[in-house]
Each structure stands twice: as structure tokens, then as C-alpha cells.
Amino acid sequence: MSTMVDVRHLFVRFGDFTAVRDVSFTVEKGEIFGFLGANGAGKTTTIRVLCGLLLASEGRVFIDNEELIAGHESLIKSKVGYMSQHFTLYDDLSIRENMDFAASLRHMNHAEYLKNRRDLLDFIGFNEDLTKVVRDLPTGIKQEIALCVSLLHQPKIVFLDEPTAGVAPVARHRFWELIKKLVAQGKTIFVTTHYMDEAENCGRIALMRSGELIALDSPANLKQNTFHKQLYHLSPITTPVILPDRNLFDIWEPYGQNYHAVFKNDTDISIVRKHFNIQKISPSLEDVFIQLVEGQTR
Amino acid sequence: MNTLWGFIKKEIMTLLRDPVLLVAILIMPALQVVILGQAISFEARNLKLAVDTVPNDMMMSRIKDHALGSGWFIDFPNSRQSAIKAVQTGEVDAAIIAPAGGLTKSMLRGEGKLQILIDATNVLKAQSIEGYLQGIIAHVMKTEYQYQTVPPLSFTTRILFNPQLETQWFIVPAIMGILVLMSILTLVSISITKEKERGTIETLISAPISKRDIILGKTLPFVLVAFLNMLLIQCVGVVLFDLPFVGSSLMFILSFVIFCVPACGIAVWLSTYTQTQQQALLGLMIVAFLMMMLSGALFPTENMPTLLRWIADINPLTHFTYLLRNIVLKGADLSYFMEKAAYMLITGILLCLMAVKRFKTTL
Questions:
Q1: pTM (2 decimals)?
Q2: Which is it for strands A204-209 and A66-67: parallel, antiparallel or unpaired?
Q3: Core-most of A56, A80, A211, B5, by most CB within 10 Å?
């Protein structure tokens, strides 16, 4: 594998506020790279810098071995595809008009555009009328059309900023199937998401907190390295719930009406068993996220 | 807690926390009253007058002195040849032309005849000039011949370019200019701001295109719309008000194209300050309103205070309106066209430079 994205000591400042602080990482070609963090952690800011939409205050960025230099972003922009949180389709234009416009922005040859458009619509399995106005489309279809628009010029890497926000679960699942197919075709995917089940699909995950990169590894390694002790699932058996002494736990997190916890000492389990059903579980990515990203900020 | 009070409190807090809205609602109206209170007046002053006679023509000197002393007119030194031409070219608003040998001698011979030429491309000014000069001449006669019989004096007034003083002929070219301005300001600034508001600006700036491409792409389609608007107004003027079209079509089109430079510059510049369509609308209402009021399109600019006259002089709409009236009613000559075009082009280039400098292709 060779490197597709190389970020070195990236800083982004807005006045006195530092949105991204000394972030460095690489993304390999053909990888699904997940970028996770709470709201305001600096995910969108970083993705915007990588796509040439925002200027870095400090640091260096390389995309496919080309350095991103302020004022000369065109070369990088021609190599990347970008799909933002809002899908950025023109609601008052038809699907065809949106795609025509996107092709004109990329200076695409007409024949090449028509071929790519046909291939991409086949790829997402869309065989409906292209004259439909975007505002009349269901959100899931809008999302897939927006993905096609970002792929029209056949970029080597696609940046997806929360592509499934507000999309129904079935459509989300379908969208991730498309992403996996893209990776199989050799594309590199850089994706931010709030859905931990989606993040499980990533080859590696970077976790951001308050503008800093706090962890970077595969989902399996992140789980293993975050929890050194056994994690338990606790379901209350009494009403009202009698909460145990928090000093018994290293980790104690609400999980719906239940709790996920790590005991300081496993011998204390018997104290808690009076009021809770207790099961051993493997940590999920959500547990990792809560522990690393949200737990530390409390 | 009382619901109505809750609404009042919430709306006032919202208003206080939106600085753009606050300026537009509270400060701008006050500013407009202060500025426009001084600027708007239907009374025409500082009208350029040429008096054409022979040396030592006492009666003409009296008339001229009274005219200049009235404060309504300012002097324009000239020769016989240039007085008529000066009215035709728009260098002066009116000329008084004495008969051969001078008015004094001709009156002594009992055949006093005086000719007044008035440029009526601006009907408001023309109506004022006619009234002022008739009053001044009558007053001079009465004063000079206080204890004598006033010798006969006839004067003919020639209203040039709009003999019937049709207000519509004066208004329609002005409306054309205003509509071109409003079309471009509204369509361009709203279109750019809409991209920001809906997030589609990211689609534009994530593409490998230049700032020039975006600005041209965001202005040229609306320039075309504005041109169609202008042609429509001209057609309505011709069909409904018998508006003549004396000048050159090429000059008409060129003046439009040149005016689009400052108009687009203002629209793009304005859009760099706004994030929402509401802000853009408020901003363009303020700018367009001031430009209209300080352009001579609706009210004469000659009698405005010096500072406001300076603003009117650098206002591209002033030159566009004057040029359109001139082309449509008079058939503007090349030198007049070049002068007005140069003003519009210089302000246009400066405004475009300011707009391009502020327009960002990054977020």
C-alpha cells in the first residue's frame, strides 16, 4: 500500500480559537479511513482543509504525493471528490441538471461525462427519470445522487463528511455497501460519521477530541487497547433503580436504561449483584468512543 | 408567565442579537432621513445658463445678473455659436439668445425679441427653468422701465428634446437604469448568498475552478436578464408613451454593458458581507435606495449639498441615467458618451477590484 493522504502537524486557527491542533496522520490507498469525534472536535474543519476548501494555519498536507499549497489548490481539487454534510445538491434543479453542472465545474469532456454518469447511475442502481427535481427525492436517493456527483470526475479519493446524517437505517446500510464496492474498485474513502456501527466498517479510525487526535488504530485494536479489564453489562432488577457506590468502578457509563461498567476489583461484583443482572461483554466501538472522546471531557 | 410578554421578549432579544438587522432597522432609516432630507427637493438650483449677446447689451446684462443673483442659475461663458451647441450637447441646461445687435437696441427699435432654449431631457428642470426665466425677465422689465412704458418684448421658448414636456419621457429612461441596477443587485447578491446559506457554495469551491470563473458564472446570466428587462421597459415606453429613440442602438447597448461593470461589482462586494438571503436583501435595499435617490433619476442633483453632490457624481447610476436620457431623447454625441462611459468604467473597475479582493474561494 502507498500513501494517499499525508497530514503533518496540521493547525487550523480561527482568531484566538484553535479548531485543529497539531494533527498528523496518513491514509493509505484503497483504505476506508474513519474520522470520529464529538461535535466541534475538528472533523469537518480537517476534511475541509484536505479538500482545499479551507486554508491551514500551519502544517503540511499531501494528497496523492502532491502538496496542498495555498493559492494552488486546483490540482488537489481535481484529484479529490467531496460530499458534504448537506449533500450540496441544488434542490431546485433536476438530477440531470445537477450532474451537468457538476461536470461543467470539473471541465469534463462531454462524452466522458455521459459515460461516467451512466456507469455511476448503474453503480447505485438508479434507473428512474433524471428530470426529477432533487427537492422531490427521498433523502436516501439524494444521498446516493450526491455520491455520484462527487465521483463524476473519477477522483482517486472521496471525502465524505457525515454522509448518512439524517438517513433511514436501510438507506444507510445500502450506502455503506456502495462505499465497500468503491473500495473494491480501488478508491480511497475518508469518512466522518457519528454512527459507531458504520465506523466498524473502517479499516482504521482516527478519534478527535477538542481539535486533537487522541487515538488512531483499527477498530479491533482500539477496543483491545482501551479496555484492559473486563467490561460488564448491568441491567437493573429493582424499581426504582438503586445505584451502587461509584467508587467500586473504574468505568461507569449509562447505556440506555442499563449500564456498562468496569469494576476496580472483580470481587465487588457480588455487592452489586443484589440489584443488577450482570453479564460479561466485549467492548463495542461505542464504548471506546464514549470512554476516549466523551468520557475524558466530563 | 404571560405568553404575549414571552413573545415580545424573545423577538426583541433576537433583534438585538442580529447586528445586521439592527443596523438596517434602526440606524439606516435615521441615516436615510438625515441624508435624503437634505438631498430630496423638487426645486432645481445650480442650473447652467448660457447668455448669448453682444458686448454692452445693458438689458441682457441685467437679465443675466438677475438670473445669476437669484441663486437658481450658474454662469456658462460662451459665444453665439456655442450657446445653441451647449444646450444640444447638454453642457448647459438653458440659453438666452438676444437678437442680432443685442436686446437693448432691438427693444429701442420696438422689435424686442428674445429666444430661450431649454434642454428638456430632464422635465423637472425644464419646467423650473421656464418658470424662473419668465419671472426674471418680467421682473427686469418692470424694474428697468419703472416710470416708463415698457417697450414691446416678445420671447419664444424652445423646449428641446421633449417639446411637450412629457414626464414619461423623462421617467422611462430613469426607470430603465433603476431596473437594470435592481435586477443585477438583487439577482447576483441573492444568488451568491443563497449558495452560502444552503451550503452549495462548497460544491463550487471544492471544484478546481478560479475565483474569476465563479464571479463571472454568478454575474453574466443575470446581466442577460437585466438586458432583457431594459429592452422590455424601452418597448413599453415606445408603445404606451410614444417614447422616441433618437440615438444610436450601439451606444444604448454599450452604455448598458459598461454600467453592468459597477453594478456587478457592487452586487458581488455586497454578497461578501452577507451570510443569509435576508441580510443580502436588507443590504441591497439600503444600497439601491441611496443610489436611486442620489442619482438624479428621480430628483435633481444640482441643488443637493456639496457632499451629497460628490456622492451623486461618483454614483454610476447618475451617469447611466443621464446617458440613457441623452441617448433616447437627444441622440448623445460620442464625446458625451465617452465622458459618461469613462466615469462608469472607472468606478466599475474600482468596485470590481474591491469585490474580487474580498471574495473568497475558501470557507
A1: 0.80
A2: unpaired
A3: A80
